[in-house]
From TrEMBL, chain A:
Keywords from the named record: Signal
Domain of life: Bacteria
Protein name per its UniProtKB record: Amino acid ABC transporter substrate-binding protein (PAAT family)
The UniProt record lists the keyword Transferase: no
Solute-binding protein family 3/N-terminal domain residues: 37-268
Annotated signal sequence range: 1-23
Keyword Signal listed: yes
Pfam families cross-referenced by the UniProt entry: SBP_bac_3 (PF00497)
CDD domains, per database record: PBP2_peptides_like
PANTHER family: AMINO-ACID-BINDING PROTEIN YXEM-RELATED, MEMBRANE-BOUND LYTIC MUREIN TRANSGLYCOSYLASE F
Automatic annotation (TrEMBL), chain B:
One of the GO BP terms on file: amino acid transport
Higher taxonomy: Bacteria, Pseudomonadati, Pseudomonadota, Alphaproteobacteria, Rhodobacterales
Organism domain of life: Bacteria
Family of this protein: Belongs to the binding-protein-dependent transport system permease family. HisMQ subfamily.
InterPro entries named among the record's database cross-references: AA_ABC_transptr_permease_3TM (IPR010065), ArtM/GltK/GlnP/TcyL/YhdX-like (IPR043429), MetI-like (IPR000515), MetI-like_sf (IPR035906)
Ribosomal protein among keywords: no
Protein name in UniProt: Amino acid ABC transporter membrane protein (PAAT family)
TrEMBL record, chain C:
Keyword ATP-binding: yes
Protein name: Amino acid ABC transporter ATP-binding protein (PAAT family)
Pfam families: ABC_tran
Bilayer disposition of the protein: Peripheral membrane protein
Classification via SMART domains: AAA
UniProt entry tagged with the keyword Ribosomal protein: no
SUPFAM superfamilies in the cross-refs: P-loop containing nucleoside triphosphate hydrolases
Listed GO CC annotations: plasma membrane
Species this chain originates from: Shimia abyssi
Residue stretches making up the ABC transporter domain: 3-237
InterPro entries membership: AAA+_ATPase, ABC_ATPase_HisP-typ, ABC_transporter-like_ATP-bd, ABC_transporter-like_CS, MetN_ABC_transporter-like, P-loop_NTPase
């Protein structure tokens, strides 16, 4: 109770403060960390193809481009977009945040919604099975029975873990890692046969990172009960959520979001669908 | 000795009063501080959110059973690592004590070994060996992260354990060795039957501290795949966006480490008393 | 001749501790080394037991030079026992284990085979009740007697004693000296470094006065004690005997 009052009071103080840089009456006016600026967080490092060359300021890469599009829709010039780096843990910890919203392929889940706010989804991803040619040569196939018998790995900090258990339910316990790099190291070392990633990440890893990497197949986005959807993460009760949702809705309805997707995320139709 | 049958000597009476007095003071000051924490911390504006994030009863109940079973992985890794560390550590310590010039390379190896492995953070060794050696192309199951993660732990901890053994060996007075040699015992027999038993006994408390550190460091194997308690807690954290699973993991650890820490402290103070 | 020391020299650090010691020891003889602290008595005994390598000189035992550099000292040490001032019992073993360790390891005999001899030694030196006690449960005198038994268990031909009563409380000295007398009666060849002048005079066959790493004067006890030739010997004896 007390903290709610505190927050309300804080909100009122901020709201009554006159907006300077933004046009009067704009949705985001007075609601950002720093007036007239929009602070957006990404990962450290930020990965291809979401952010190119770990340089979100460039606007290159899917999430970087979407971020600038949302900012523009909210009335922020590109110059007024500030980038910070923030991990998942910092994003869910209680207390003040150092960003207005955080974009790094955060999957929207019911449990997470209890602690933080998510925007509307800006991308729905299929999940894909990353493996090596050697495993395929040894007889791995794109069907569930074959997948179950593989030794699996995943990034422990992602929803790939429950999806793996739901979609595949492997015979042996999966091995879990801190980040993509460690998962690929384990594939390379032959400690795991396959790993589950969102499709764009999997495509990038198989093409660039993993030697002899290949995609065994994909689970289409509508396959599971809860499709893997990415949303911008905000502080619980963020006054900015409505503005961000509005911007994404506009971008989605105008087809701008699809265009950004087409220019940054690879063609995914070539990957066989797992039955 | 002249205690009257009715009660205590004057001195004992006095000391008993003093003891009671300090107990009362210690008790009331502790209670006061706990009371202050319990009353004041929830007054902080962010308390509700912190409580929800770190001390969430629902998350606690949900994650506890799986965390407990993941803890068995830590216990298992610990159980097979500790004896290997003891054996290798002792071997390295003895290698550093070798005086025969033919075996000088062994001595040099012992020296370089302890310097290198004490100088590198454990987690780096776990990464390098856990991913690096299997990456050379070992077939399964020989590339298991359990095997190479254990190797990394054993290599690192043996370096520390070896140094402790060595300090123990050096703490046994030279006259013990002389006495053994003067009886006609070989130098290896002197080491084995006279010096080592005394040395090992002396360093048990110090080695207990290594055991406690090892109990915690087995969690580092999670970096290379095994889903032990910290990894499992991380998964829960990620899925539930809540840190309570880490608190649960810490509590489970404490249940094991606090008694061993107390035991180690007890052994150390017992040894200090015996020496004085 | 049982044992013959020939021009032994030994340097410790920069200090010349033994400066050409020569000494002949006959079978069954008890030789008492006397002299101030630092005169080289202890070092000489440690050299004879090969705990300290010689810089120069030779030690002849039954016609062999046991101080030949590179020679395995182990068999020699089995023939020459030594007992130290500070007992040096192994604290983690009982009295019996202390005594049995070397014979069991070296002769590879079983405990049962060794027990008649060892049990008799314990019996002879009044230690039968203390076999299963640890050193810290024994008095200084008892510990030193166990140390003697430990050395005797290897059936040595020569025994060296390095000020074995110096660390003892005065009332315990007697029981240890009794042991030495008993050994002498049995014909053991012995070299003692000692401050017990009365004992040296009454029991010793020969007394050697060590000074600055040399044997300055030697002879039968009555001669050295009553009519010392060297002024330094007279000084030393005056000091120690006056002290009581």
């Amino acid at each position: 109770m007390r903290s709610t009052q505190f927050l309300t009071a804080l909100g009122l103080t901020i709201c009554t403060f006159p907006g300077i840089a933004l046009a009067d009456g704009h949705c985001a006016a007075g609601k950002t960390l720093e007036d007239g600026k929009l602070t957006i967080a990404t990962g450290n490092p930020a990965y291809f193809p979401w952010v190119m060359d770990d340089a979100p300021e460039s606007g290159q890469g899917f999430e970087s481009a979407v971020a600038y599009a949302i900012a523009a829709e909210m009335g922020f010039e590109a110059d007024n977009v500030v980038w910070v780096r923030s991990g998942f843990d910092e994003s869910i910890q209680p207390g003040a945040k150092n960003f207005d919203f955080n974009m790094q392929q955060f999957s929207i889940t019911e449990d997470r919604e209890k602690v933080v706010d998510f925007s509307m989804p800006y991308y729905s991803s299929a999940m894909a099975v990353l493996t090596t040619q050697g495993v395929v040569d040894a007889g791995a196939e794109a069907n569930l029975a074959s997948l179950k018998s593989l030794k699996w790995g995943a990034d422990a900090n992602t929803t790939a873990v429950p999806l793996l258990m739901n979609l595949v339910a492997p015979d042996s316990d999966p091995l879990l890692y801190n980040d993509n790099t460690d998962v690929t190291a384990a594939i390379q070392a032959g400690q795991i046969d396959a790993a589950l990633f969102d499709l764009p990440t999997a495509l990038y890893l198989s093409a660039v990172v993993v030697e002899n990497g290949t995609l065994l197949g994909q689970f289409p986005a509508d396959r599971s009960e809860n499709p893997d959807q990415f949303g911008a993460l905000m502080e619980e009760g963020s006054p900015l959520k409505a503005c961000v949702d509005e911007a994404i809705t506009v971008l989605s309805e105008s087809g701008a979001l699809q265009q950004i997707e087409a220019s940054w995320l690879s063609e995914t139709t070539g990957v066989p669908v797992i039955k | 000795m002249t205690t009257p049958s009715s009660g205590l000597t004057r001195r004992q009476e006095y000391e008993r009063r003093q003891r009671r007095r300090s107990l009362v003071i210690a008790g009331s000051s502790t209670a006061l501080i706990i009371l202050a924490i319990v009353l004041l911390v929830p007054l902080a504006p962010g308390w509700e959110r912190v409580q929800n994030s770190f001390f969430n009863a629902e998350v606690f109940a949900k994650s506890f059973p799986k965390l407990l079973s993941a803890f068995l992985v830590d216990v298992a890794i610990f159980a097979w690592s500790a004896p290997l560390i003891a054996i290798l550590g002792l071997a390295i310590a003895l290698a550093r004590d070798v005086r025969n010039p033919v075996l000088y390379p062994l001595r040099l190896f012992g020296m370089v070994y302890t310097d290198v492995f004490r100088g590198v953070p454990v987690v780096l060794v776990v990464y390098l060996i856990g991913f690096g050696i299997p990456g050379l192309g070992l077939p399964r199951p020989w590339n298991s992260p359990y095997i190479w993660g254990t190797v990394a732990l054993v290599l690192t901890y043996s370096a520390y354990v070896a140094e402790i053994f060595r300090s123990g060996i050096e703490s046994v007075h030279a006259s013990q060795r002389s006495a053994a040699l003067s009886l006609g015992l070989s130098s290896s027999d002197s080491m084995r039957f006279v010096v080592l038993p005394q040395a090992i006994r002396r360093v048990i408390p110090a080695q207990m501290n290594m055991l406690i550190a090892l109990q915690k460091d087995v969690a580092l194997l999670s970096f290379i795949g095994p889903v032990e308690i910290f990894r499992q807690a991380g998964v829960f954290k990620s899925l539930l966006a809540n840190f309570t699973p880490y608190v649960v993991a810490a509590l489970i650890f404490l249940v094991i480490t606090v008694p061993t820490t107390r035991l180690a402290d007890h052994l150390i103070s017992k040894q200090n008393r015996a020496r004085s | 001749m049982k044992l013959r020391l020939d021009q032994i020299k030994k340097t410790l650090g920069n200090r010349l501790v033994l400066d050409g010691i020569s000494l002949d020891v006959s079978q069954g003889e008890m030789i008492c080394l006397i002299g101030a602290s630092g005169s080289g008595k202890s070092t000489l005994l440690r050299c004879i037991n090969l705990l300290e390598p010689l810089d120069d000189g030779a030690i002849w035992l039954d016609g062999h030079d046991i101080a030949t550099p590179g020679l395995d000292p182990q068999p020699v040490r089995q023939k020459i026992g030594i007992v130290f001032q500070s007992y040096n019992l192994f604290p983690h073993m009982t009295a019996l284990e202390n005594v049995l360790l070397a014979p069991r390891r070296i002769t590879k005999k079983s405990r049962a085979d060794l027990m008649p001899h060892v049990g008799e030694l314990f019996e002879r030196f009044g230690l039968s009740q203390h076999m299963d006690q640890y050193p810290d449960q024994l008095s200084g005198g008892q510990q030193q007697r166990v140390a003697i038994v430990r050395a005797l268990a290897m059936k040595p031909e020569i025994m060296l004693f390095d000020e074995i009563t110096s660390a003892l409380d005065p009332e315990l000295v007697g029981e240890v000296l009794e042991v030495l007398k008993a050994l002498k009666r049995e014909g053991m060849t012995m070299i003692l470094a000692t401050h017990e002048m009365t004992f040296a005079r009454d029991v010793g066959n020969r007394v050697c006065f060590l000074d600055r790493g040399r044997i300055l004067e030697q002879g039968p006890p009555e001669q050295v004690f009553n009519t010392p030739k060297e002024p330094r010997t007279r000084d030393f004896l005056a000091r120690v005997l006056n002290r009581g």
